[in-house]
Amino acid sequence: MRYDIAIYNGTIITVDDQFKIIENGLICVAADRIVRIGPMPGNGPLPDAKRTIDAEGGIILPGLVNTHTHLPMTLFRGLADDLPLKQWLEDVIFPAEAAHMTPENVRIGTSLACAEMMLSGTTTCCDGYFLEDEVAQTVADSGLRGVLGQGVMDFAAPGIGDPGDAIAVAERFAVKWRARSPLIRPSVFCHSLYACSAGTLTAAKRMADKHGLLFQIHVAETRTENENIREQHRTSPVGYLDRLGLIGPNCLLVHCVWIDDADMAVIAERKAAVSHNPESNMKLAAGIAPLTRMHTAGVTVGIGTDGCASNNTLDLFQAMDITAKLHKVHDMDSTAADARTIIRMATRDGARAIGMEAEIGSLEVGKKADLIIIDVRQPHLVPMYHPVSHAVYAAKGSDVNTVIIDGRLVIENSALVHLDMLEIMRRANSVAKIIAQKDIPQWS
Amino acid sequence: MRYDIAIYNGTIITVDDQFKIIENGLICVAADRIVRIGPMPGNGPLPDAKRTIDAEGGIILPGLVNTHTHLPMTLFRGLADDLPLKQWLEDVIFPAEAAHMTPENVRIGTSLACAEMMLSGTTTCCDGYFLEDEVAQTVADSGLRGVLGQGVMDFAAPGIGDPGDAIAVAERFAVKWRARSPLIRPSVFCHSLYACSAGTLTAAKRMADKHGLLFQIHVAETRTENENIREQHRTSPVGYLDRLGLIGPNCLLVHCVWIDDADMAVIAERKAAVSHNPESNMKLAAGIAPLTRMHTAGVTVGIGTDGCASNNTLDLFQAMDITAKLHKVHDMDSTAADARTIIRMATRDGARAIGMEAEIGSLEVGKKADLIIIDVRQPHLVPMYHPVSHAVYAAKGSDVNTVIIDGRLVIENSALVHLDMLEIMRRANSVAKIIAQKDIPQWS
Prior knowledge:
The structure is a homodimer.
Chain A: E1 3-13, E2 21-30, E3 33-39, E4 49-54, E5 59-62, E6 64-69, H1 85-100, H2 103-119, E7 122-129, H3 132-142, E8 145-152, H4 166-177, E9 184-192, H5 198-211, E10 214-219, H6 223-233, H7 237-243, E11 251-255, H8 261-269, E12 273-276, H9 278-283, H10 291-297, E13 300-303, H11 316-331, H12 339-353, E14 371-374, H13 387-394, E15 400-405, E16 408-412, E17 415-416, H14 421-439
Parallel strand pairs in A: 1-4, 1-5, 6-7, 7-8, 8-9, 9-10, 10-11, 11-12, 12-13
Antiparallel strand pairs in A: 1-2, 2-3, 5-14, 14-15, 15-16, 16-17
């Protein structure tokens, strides 16, 4: 058979059940699927393919899965840092959103995020925001894969003047996007326990279940949230959600910093999953989620960057390195959060957490062709003893030189193939000039 | 006057006393010094210079100062990770050093480190290792600036068969290099309290004082070290050093994870400084140094990466970002370790910590021309509201496109000007092949 793409001369980290590593591997793609993977046959010619890609000794990984983003917020990258959380949110971020998150700016910020993510090796994101219809169109156009959640909360938000309409808007979004693009899966994103009433949470979850959607929610992010929920409801944030009957296999619980062993048991029992966002939790001083204990309890945990206003980068390679280091020192155990565990979190466990493990997250025959190549011909990637360690502790997002999503080459020679990067940046800078006129607090 | 170099069209973060930021700035260099700095004069022509550099809207920073390295250990990057500290050190690193750290391999590993550091914006390193004469020649040849400490301890080490010779070797090194290159300052590096007797420490410090050298030592890195010293000497590691009379203004105390308020008061009182190595301390699960309390106590703290066997990167941009985030979550205060503080630590405070603040660490007339330019024309650096925040939370080492050290352009268009990168990598890979034959533990 003639393949569409054949990739050779790289070390493949499959992230399959055996965590198989294939030196001098070969991967062949037909349409949007991986149809062959294994060692390069000795001495024979390359298989017949429309396009052959020489990985030049690099590392071939499943595309990374970012389990928590707010894509349009790239426009607020660095708008305010080093502030108390309440002041950051109420004095800067909320007013900036109210003033600037028009449909056009949502598209501009999203296209900037897609460019940044693809350039740094992310092939799938799980997003929650408002005006998500604009986000979805932009993500689909960019060539990135996304599980995209229209936001629901009991306050006005971009595109939702009357909060009473929020669930209807989310349902229309879900119906519109359920089969519109092979790259997009709709989802529902309830903001949080403090921004949604029990009625809203229940109605949104029921709608998610009806349409088979992923139900995302920020839970147990800050100490304040934990204390308030415990005071109001006499149980933990996770306990409260569970009492409402809302935790199930289609739930992605984002943050879970303030959870205890009973919460973890509930999450594992209900087969829900967690999105761990260490950089955001560190930068906003929310706390450190108990990763090792979640793993021991059998909870599936993916890695997220969170939005650009609270990180300030979408680079999952950086997130992998920090996740590993943070939990070693948090546990005071240098064997904690080892490189294999971290790679699995950023690929296969992330895919499972957002309900997509059947399609993506590992390099195996029959899965979608979402993969990346790390160019190791650089001083900071020499020498290479262990490709898995290398990918976590030495590689950076900028080392990704090739990205394929859904069988389509979107990054080649470290550059965007289909998108006009200069135009994307020019438009984002134009919006930022307007934002900067009124929203920058005294800072430095 | 005709300048050697004129740099224009960038935002300058001076890190001077006022932490002045100059938009659309101009810096002029004559020989090895900054001779002019300020806003670009309106409408006039560019000043006459042999070489003009357009920063293209980028951020111009003092070159970064890495206050703790073991340069040749790039050869062990990723050789062993995720192991218990004792096993990592005794089963892998020590045997690998004994077997492979020949003079030639020290040069090969050092040149790889110099390439990696310059490419990621570091212009000065403070190193401690053995066979430091080889390190010094390689650093000088590479064009990097270094304060380089010949190692002293009571055990055999590369180049020192009889530990009784260690101080004499260190003194010969100091005499040889005291005026040999404008880029190199010799130093003494006593390994640690557990590897050096009181007699060795005292004699090494006396020698350092006699020649006006920086005295470097690993102190209070691990819980075990802290407990052992307290049991043996009834005081803390810092207290023990001070009781020996060895803490003074020429002391760089590396790590200081396990220190208390009394220790900090001593360090501040003696005008010694600390090298903080958060990534190494996290990865080896040593602990978290009390950065904010050190600052409150008036201690000068620089940032270090530590050697590549325990990090595994020499990228100070990554170290800056992690330092900021780690201490916010450690203090549970999002205003801790703000971006200005972090930039100052990685430049001016680092320079002060290694005794070089008179020459480097800020962009001011009369200082050495050590500076870098961050290329902001990339999606992850758009938009830019605050250059200081941007440099800490958004920029990566790979975004540095221009580096000048001692008035000499060493990185241009993100590439090494004078060094053959492919040859450096080829030689390092050759050595690694031999190392890999016997020293790789079962790992993944």
